[in-house]
Amino acid sequence: KDRLTAAQKATGEKDALIAMRGTLGGHPLVTVAFEFNFIGGSMGAVVGEKFTQAVNTCIAEGLPLVCFSTSGGARMQEALISLMQMAKTSAALERLKQMRLPYISILVDPVYGGVSASLAMLGDINIAEPNALVGFTGPDVIRQTVRVKLPEGFQRSEFLLEHGAIDMIVPRGDIPSKVASLLDKLMHSRRAKEPLADAEEKGANAVGENDSLSPLASENQQDSAN
What we know:
By secondary structure, this protein is an alpha/beta fold. Helices cover 42% and strands 19% of the residues. The chain is globular. Strand 4 (103-111), helix 4 (113-116) and strand 5 form a beta-alpha-beta unit. Strands 6-5-4-3-2-1-7 form a 7-stranded mixed sheet. Helix 2 (45-61) runs parallel beside helix 3 (79-98). It has 10 helices and 7 strands.
């Protein structure tokens, strides 16, 4: 409890996940981001519930979801409850998939443990920053366990891209324009059903023009998991 209180004071956040709604390149969307300075961005019951509520908002309003992950994994202090969030968030993303709504996952150094083994690698498009470390267990632990020399660059984003584990590597400054471009393509089928004037107005917005973010409604309401 003391560590939780200290993390809240240090970061100004209630837990390790921040949820927002806004627009990017004319696309309404929901975005969530892990705060690594909040107990290593660890995923516990509140993080799992907040992520699930973000997915539910996307489903209810027909919005895409963008997630920025940086985490040491499941929160050890919550034991089995934290491990349950892997299944909970994965099931929520499956519901999003069934609604044919895009999920773009962005991996920010580092991403490990239960987060990498669930929501972080389930994107329709998985993007990593250059040189980001992504894996389940750290290379030192693996090296000591299997007692073999690991490949050069093991678990770095460049290694993952070469072996097909992620879709692309994008520098941080280029991520907004890349995500907007991807949403143009992924949301095309839905935009095609809108009135022509509405579609043209959205398409005319460049990245940065009228882009905005505001707290998701559940951000202020969800202080603890259901």
